[in-house]
Amino acid sequence: MTSCTTPAPGTRFPFTLAAVLGLALASALPAAADSEEYFRPVTDETVKTECSACHMAYPAGMLPARSWSAIMADLPNHFGEDASLAEETRARIEAWLVANAAPENSRIARSLQGGEPVLRISETPWWVRAHKWEVSPAAFENPKVGSKANCVACHRGAEQGYFEDD
Amino acid sequence: MTHLPTRLCLALAIALGATAGALADPARDAILAGYEKAAGEPLSADRGKAFFNATHAGGKPDTPTCTTCHTANPKAAGKTRAGKAIEPMAVSANPNRFTDPAFVEKWFGRNCNSVLGRDCTTREKGDVITWLSNL
C-alpha cells in the first residue's frame, strides 16, 4: 500500500505518485458509473427468461425508467411483433426494469430527457455515438448480424455485460 | 441373454413401431385431443402444412408468414428478427415441442396476432401441430 502520511525528507516521489493515482481514480470513478462498455446483466430469472426469448435480455441500465415503462405498456406492438405477457408477469418485469434502469442523474438518462421516450436502444444518442465511427452501416446488414438488436454478434461478452470494442 | 416371452416381444415391437412414426408424447396427445375436440372435426397435417407456409394478410408487416422466423424447413433452426436462433419446430428434430400447453398457447397467441392479426382457431392450431408432429 502506498503511504502518504510519512514521506521521507527529500523524497517526494511517493506523494506525487499517490496524487497521480488519486487523480486517476477520481476521474475514473464517474466514468465507471457512466460506462458504456459494461452494463450489469439482467439477474432476475423472470426478466431474463421472458426478455431473452427473441433477443438477448438487454441490460436495464441501457435505458431510463420512462423508456422501459413505455415499452412494457405496449407489448402487443413490440417492435413489429406481439410479445404479450400475462399481466402479473408483465407488471413484475416492468417493476424490475424500472428499478434497475439508468439512474436519473446518469449521462444516459440525462441525454434522454424531454420529448417522447426513446424505445429502441439503438436510437439513443449514446448508442448512436458509440457505433457511429467504428461500425459501418453495412455491418448490420451482414446475415451473421442481421440486426442492430443482435449485440452478441459483435460484442461476444454481451450476455455477461461486457460491450467493449471487439 | 434374457429371452422375453413371445407375447411381450410382440407388444414391445408394436409399441416401438407406433412411437417411431409420431414420437408420441402423452402431453402432446392431450393438447392435440383438446384442439380436435374444440374444432369439432379431425385435424389435418396437409391443412397445417399449407397454413404454416402461407402468406397471410392482416398481420404485422414484418411477419407475413410463419416461415419469416421459422423458415420453410421446420426440421432446421429458425431465427428471430433480432437474430436469435429458434429451435426447430418439427417434433422429429425437437422432441420437446408441443408438450407444455401454457407455452403452446402463449406462442400461438403472440404469433397468430403477429402473422394474421387475429387469434388462430383451435383447428388451425391443431392442424399445424399435427403436421409438425409427423414430419
Automatic annotation (TrEMBL), chain A:
Signal peptide positions on this chain: 1-33
Statement: the UniProt record of this protein carries the keyword Nuclease: no
One protein family per Pfam: DHC
InterPro entries: Dihaem_cytochrome-c (IPR018588), Multihaem_cyt_sf (IPR036280)
Protein name: Cytochrome C
Membrane-crossing segments per the record: none
SUPFAM superfamilies, per database record: Multiheme cytochromes
Keywords of this entry: Signal
From TrEMBL, chain B:
Keyword field contains Heme: yes
Keyword rRNA-binding in annotation: no
Keywords associated with the record: Heme, Iron, Metal-binding, Signal
Record-linked InterPro entries: Cyt_c-like_dom, Cyt_c-like_dom_sf, DUF1924_SHP
Leader sequence segment: 1-24
Domain Cytochrome c: 43-135
Pfam families named in the record: DUF1924
TM segment ranges: none
GO MF entries: electron transfer activity; heme binding; metal ion binding
Protein name: Nitrate reductase
Species this protein is from: Zhengella mangrovi
Lineage summary: Bacteria, Pseudomonadati, Pseudomonadota, Alphaproteobacteria, Hyphomicrobiales
